[in-house]
Amino acid sequence: MHELKITMLGPTGVGKTSLLTAMYEQFANNIGEVDLQLTPDDESSATLQERLIDLKSLLDDFEAKGGVKSTEGEPNDLRSFRFGLGRRGKQPSLQLHFQDYPGGYHLATASPERKQFVKTLLTECVAVLITIDAPALMEVRGRWNEKFNRPQQITDLFKTAYQDLDSPRLVIFAPVRCEKYIKGGASLDLVQRIKEEYKGLFDFLTSKEVESNVAVVITPVQTVGSVVFSRIEMNDGEPKFKFRKIGHDAKYSPEDSEQPLRYLLRFLLKLHLNNRNWGFFNFLRDWFSMDTHLVEAIRKLSKGCKTSGGFVVLQGDSYLNF
Amino acid sequence: MKIYAQSRGRSPDFEYCWLPETPPHLNMVSGLIQSESPSIVITRFNRELMLLVTGMESSDRTDFRDRPVRNSVAWVCDENYDNERHLRAIAIQALRGLLGSEIDKAIKFGGQHGFEFSQADIEKLSQAVLRDDELESQPLESSELTPKVGKNLEALKDDLAYRLQRYSLPKKYDILVVVTGNKARDTFVQAGAWRALSNLINSDNWQPVPDRRDRQPNFQVAVAIAVAVIVIALIVLILLLHPFNQKPTVPPTPVPTVSPTNSIPGETPEQTQQSYLTNSQEPLKEESTPSVKSESELVPSAD
């Protein structure tokens, strides 16, 4: 079975594992009648179930505390999540391999081996989800953004990894914990702030050598749905972002967390339809041509890709639009 | 005995890391566990024993996201009678859930890596866990030497603790004990672990598994047989292609007699013989050429 590698890029505590958990959990709930299913392997399934319990535990108290357990480990034994993708009730025909890693690999103090690991990962992955902590980006005009989201380090990573690209890539900016910043017209501010804070990265991605191979989208995710940012508390000079439930009876209700996956599958289908020679993506041609129902299912799924309310295709229309 | 500790500082400027350095051989065992889940591993590498206990949540230290910070400790020592007993004693405490709070007291926020630990406190703790008369060192019964796995349940952890209290560690295993969260059964079978417990094993009792070490000699035998078969096949093939190369035994081919009728006028008998040999070889040359196909003929077209 062919495998496509995807990763979530972001510093420690930014919400990479939470995003993956919500993405998987909501995929089945939100795709309606579309004839597709994601089947995790046993280890991934059990671990995601635990992380989901962590996410839901945020709602145990009015002031949300804790969250998904942080990731740890050395590059050679990092946890990854594997999902079989295929039609419902059929053997999966493609494997999506989400590689998780500790956000501390981005720290300046990280070992050369850990830094190299992230660079290699970025080079190997067909899609990268840049996970952004939205409150750090938005509150007090992004005073804590550099500390929490480290956009400069992310930019530097891309500059090293995206050299001489010979096949198309999808870069998804996925701001998480967006509950407060997506209502009404606020999403415009969110998009604007991403453009400001990641200007260096956008400049690189739109450069002549890179632009033709990279599609870029923004997909804001409300990871829990019913928990919003409330205030920042300082503790020994360190900021602590506090969150609260929107009501005492509020339930776990994430929104749009499956959108990054929709965009990913849309990207893959479009690669197939473009019918060009794409290096290591050539197998997609065989994969799709084996199953016309699968093509239709992904086409139908792609129609659910949002394009307003903070969802923007910034570049690479030709890789995403039918 | 060397002691290593892993934890993290509160701020996003820190990440989980080992102090004073990453324990040796950690990369040989870290794939066997779900490290963020409470796990216990005992291994033997290069005559060194290692006990690794991970995923012990701190009761009071949380990170900048209010997530409980986890502690891990590794004890590494030369393998000898005293050290082996020492490690077993600590492992028993870990299996009984009595280690986490004591370790937590020895680790504090601070320092350049975000946390510090007191080596002396952990050493003291390791020495005080079991009285000498509570720990036996009987050799394992032969029926206990087979590898077994089971679900990570209190009952099986208690049973394992009891065995570690009574028996010495088996000598012929490198991976001795693994207790962890979500790891597939096959991970332990492949690693050849003596005892393994995981949340993903659906057996409430100890379940014997194939001994990977038994397969090793079988595998070698299989390889030897395969090599022998290939050698015999090659010999047979050579004999078939060159049946009884009789050059040494067959008498030399008689040189055709050059009769005066075959001779060309003006040639000496020697010249005539040379001309005969050359002409008789020419047709052979023509027949052998087509058997060599060009590369383009052999390789199928990419189209």
What tags apply to this protein structure?
heterodimer; A: 322 residues; alpha/beta; Rossmann fold; three-stranded antiparallel sheet; 21% strand; B: 303 residues; alpha+beta; nine-stranded mixed sheet; two-stranded antiparallel sheet; 9 helices; 11 strands; 36% helix; disordered C terminus
What would you say this structure looks like, in words?
The complex is a heterodimer of chains A (322) and B (303). In chain A, a hairpin with a 2-residue loop joins strand 9 (227-235) and strand 10. The two termini of chain A are 27 Å apart. Chain A has one domain (2-316): Rossmann fold, CATH 3.40.50. Chain A has twelve helices and eleven strands. By secondary structure, chain A is of the alpha/beta class. Chain A has helices spanning 16-30, 42-57, 112-124, 134-138, 145-149, 151-161, 186-197, 199-205, 208-211, 259-274, 283-290, 292-302; strands spanning 2-9, 37-40, 63-64, 80-86, 94-99, 127-133, 169-176, 214-218, 227-235, 238-245, 312-315. Chain B starts with a strand and ends in a 5-residue tail after the last helix. Chain B is built from nine helices and eleven strands. Chain B has one domain (2-214). In chain B, helix 2 packs antiparallel against helix 5. In chain B, strands 2-1-5-4-3-9-10-8-11 form a nine-stranded mixed beta sheet, with helices on both faces. In chain B, strands 6-7 form a two-stranded antiparallel sheet. Mean pLDDT of chain B is 81; it is low at 256-270 and 272-303. Chain B has helices at 26-29, 81-95, 100-105, 119-127, 154-166, 185-191, 212-241, 269-288, 295-298, and strands at residues 2-7, 17-19, 39-45, 48-62, 68-78, 107-109, 115-117, 148-151, 175-179, 195-198, 207-208. The radius of gyration of chain B is 36 Å and the shape is globular. Chain B has 303 residues and is of the alpha+beta class. At the A-B interface, helix 2 and strand 10 of A face loops of B.
